[in-house]
Design goal:
- The mean pLDDT is 97.
- This protein has 2 domains: 148 residues, Aspartate Aminotransferase, domain 1; 234 residues, Aspartate Aminotransferase, domain 2, CATH 3.40.640.
- Helix content is 37%, strand content 17%.
- It contains 14 helices and 15 strands.
- By secondary structure, the protein is α/β, with parallel strands linked by helices.
- Bound molecules: pyridoxal-5'-phosphate.
């Protein structure tokens, strides 16, 4: 049998790229809106959106035009010089977050590292924690990235094993447990770092009032509340930030993914002057962070979010998605559905197949999702998806699970 182009490209990738991912066997060639086309010309509905990096869809015209215009002007200066998009980017992003200052980076993990460094420095310089004693409290089952410091406070053995020695200074408490958090906070605690909804853990929404409780506790104890909104933020849950669902404003937002509009990697830490004002030249940085191309694309993302249109769409379609998925619970195949807005974690009964098997079956029917933790699939389509396409995707899920009406 002759090898298909798909098989040949996958074999070649397997031979020459590190096996740090286990992608579905599809090779994408082009994409537009909520749809991707593979090298054989087959079309797929994207129900993952690059883990929320593609909230505004593939090839979004406004974002592509902004990028193209900037490509013709200047793409990179490094921070050795000023460039003419930087001030506007920082001002507008700070305003979107209701904060004073922005520290731009590139990837999510870098932004989390930046938040960790900022909290420690704030702890020593502002709070007065003795040198070297700063402690940051994090949640079990977190996912904040892949650097050595971040995996040091992961509870996922796959993410951690063989990567020690680990960075000290972190304490792990169960997610959603305010009493455990209260116990863990000491005079040396400089920050609590959590995801307002845990994405990689399976789209885990904390108990009602948890975020508000974290806010109250951190304020009482003079501890920074760092919200990692890299996946939950920028429209996904129907609000600009998932913290808004509990009317909570953290001290530091950590942003990434959709901030780059699916075009370029853009991340940032956004906070008050008291917090981000701790830095002096030479203490932190990135050659690419806040580059002109990144700023131009992110400015367009900010403008799109300022309209509220995408948040509204996520709310409306999200209600529909959760109503439809809710109907599957208890019917045998689906054990539980969690999430907010256009974001869902669907726990499949293992007798119907693993998350991976369900994802592969969906792929065969032209729908792309991704499994997590064995038996969960994550659904997070671009916010620009039409209701008809979403319904078609849900029909495919029902067909795969054998739960058609
Ligand atoms: C909540 C959260 N934080 C951080 C990261 C890491 O981002 P990146 O992969 O861009 O380093 C992710 C990625 O999935 C994430 O979901």
């Amino acid at each position: 049998m002759t090898e298909s182009r798909t098989q040949a490209l996958i074999a070649s990738a397997d031979a020459h790229s590190a096996h740090n991912y286990h992608p579905l066997p599809v090779v994408v060639a082009t994409a537009e809106g909520a749809w991707m086309t593979d090298v054989e010309g087959r079309r797929y509905l994207d129900m993952l959106a690059g883990y929320s990096a593609l909230n505004f869809g593939h090839g979004n015209r406004r974002l592509i035009d902004a990028a193209k215009a900037q490509l013709e002007r200047v793409t990179l200066t490094s921070r050795a010089f000023h460039h003419d998009r930087f001030a506007e980017f920082c001002t507008r992003l700070a305003a979107l977050c209701g904060k004073d200052m922005v520290l731009p980076m590139n990837t999510g993990a870098e932004a989390v590292e930046t938040a960790v460094k900022t909290a420690r420095k704030w702890g020593y310089r502002v709070k007065g924690v003795p040198d070297g004693q700063a402690k940051i409290v994090v949640a079990a089952d977190n996912f904040h990235g892949r650097t050595t410091t971040i995996v040091s406070f992961s509870t996922d053995p796959e993410a951690r094993a063989d990567f020690g020695p680990y960075t000290p200074g972190f304490e792990i408490v169960p997610y959603g447990d305010l009493d455990a958090l209260r116990e863990a906070v000491t005079d040396e605690t400089v920050a609590v770092l959590i995801e307002p909804i845990q994405g990689e853990a399976g789209v885990l929404v904390p108990p009602a009032d948890y975020l508000a409780g974290v806010r109250e506790l951190t304020r009482e104890r003079n501890v920074l509340f760092i919200a990692d909104e890299i996946q939950s933020g920028l429209g996904r849950t129907g609000k600009t930030f998932a913290c808004e669902h509990e009317d909570v404003v953290p001290d530091m937002y950590v942003l990434g993914k959709a901030l780059g509009g699916g075009v370029v990697p853009v991340s940032a830490v956004v906070a008050s002057r008291e917090v981000l004002g701790v830095y002096r030249p030479g203490e932190h940085g990135s050659t690419f962070g806040g580059n002109p191309l990144a700023c131009a694309v992110a400015l367009e993302v900010i403008a799109m979010l300022e309209t509220g249109e995408y948040q509204e769409k996520a709310t409306e379609l999200g209600e529909h998605l959760h109503r439809e998925l809710g109907l599957l619970v208890g019917g045998g195949a689906v054990r539980e559905v969690r999430g907010r807005g256009l974001w869902a974690g669907v726990d499949i009964d293992p007798s119907y197949g693993t998350g991976r098997e369900i994802s592969e079956k969906l792929m065969e029917r032209g729908v792309l999702v991704k499994d997590t933790h064995g038996s969960t699939i994550r659904i997070a389509p671009p916010l620009v998806i039409s209701k008809e396409d979403l319904d078609w995707g849900l029909d495919q899920l029902r067909a795969v699970l054998g739960t058609e009406a």
